[in-house]
Amino acid sequence: MRRLRGDVASGLALACLALSVHAQQACGPGDLGCAIFTGEHPLNAHLRDDSRALPSSTTRCINCHAATPASASFAPPLTHDALLGETRRRGGPLSHYDAAAFCRALEDGVDPAGVLLRKAMPRYRLNDAECAALWRFVTSR
Description:
Layout: H1 2-23, H2 32-38, E1 44-46, H3 61-64, H4 80-84, E2 87-88, E3 94-95, H5 99-108, E4 123-125, H6 128-139
Antiparallel strand pairs: 1-4, 2-3
């Protein structure tokens, strides 16, 4: 049992290291959207029904929204096709994101069809410039 715990702990440590290295991808100078996505520009956030601030290491978009197929990731990829394509999200009607709906999802946790996002999705406190920069970044991927 101890060996199993050690193996699990080692695996978790390697996964965290991989995420950390991946999260530190370099952004171009002045690329605020990339800096927000990777956590170089941290944002204040909290979980639904809990006003306590989350540690910035847990609120990087890249932690959950890898550019992998939606079926292989914890959260959907934040890419041009995934955001702008019309699809049924969590059983709601067909919808797609635009800049306003994207910002609403980040701030209020509600998708473009009015469906509440998972509780694990942080609710961010960001200004209009930050949200617009992040929107430009993710829709260019």
